[in-house]
Amino acid sequence: MKKTAAAAPIRVVLADDHDLVRSGIKALLSLVEGVDVIAEARDGKELITLVESLNPDVVMTDISMPGMDGITAIAHIHETHPEVRMLVLSMYDTVDFVKRAVANGACGYLMKDAPPFELEQAVRSVMATGSYFSPAIAQRLLQPSEPTVDDELTHRQVEILKLIAQGRASKEIAFELGLSPKTVDVHRARIMERLRLNDIASLTLYAVRKGLIKP
């Protein structure tokens, strides 16, 4: 990568649940003059904690992570630290993912298979212009999109769907969310009705396709 002088370092926090991926991204960014990776997170909750304590310039995060996912973390950070530029680095390139990320506060999106020089381009662009979308993603945005999971389900239903897709029983879900098992069952029935799905396998497939859980 070409090194470019910068008046002040751009402070970056990385978030990805795969150590090898984070190490690779950090190594590439270390070649860019004026960009400093100051911390790394393995999930959305850890990312929020780091942003609270370090107040970085840029967050570069995956979407699909265990526990709190990237979208939820982005929404929280955008609300509490709107000045932080949030850049999604994902393996998912569907319009649904991109629009969900942007709707929750992301200002940039690029793919994990992007050429290395694009990392520098993305970081500098979100700092200079407030946004960056790789050519491949920009092309996707021109295509018509299907309804997002947020269009189809309430926040509580999304929470329950994720746990159902992870194989949790109604009692486990009820305990984790502070609900009664009967309430969880009612939510599950409504989720199936709204999505027009008839079994747990179909719900799980939907959750994978929408990026709510990893395949």
From TrEMBL:
The modification 4-aspartylphosphate is found at D62. Pfam families: GerE, Response_reg. It comes from the Bacteria. Residues 146-211 form the HTH luxR-type domain. InterPro entries: CheY-like_superfamily (IPR011006), NreC/VraR/RcsB-like_REC (IPR058245), Sig_transdc_resp-reg_C-effctor (IPR016032), Sig_transdc_resp-reg_receiver (IPR001789), Tscrpt_reg_LuxR_C (IPR000792), WalR-like (IPR039420). SMART domains: HTH_LUXR, REC. Residues 11-127 form the Response regulatory domain. Keywords: DNA-binding, Phosphoprotein. This is Response regulator transcription factor. It comes from Ramlibacter aquaticus.
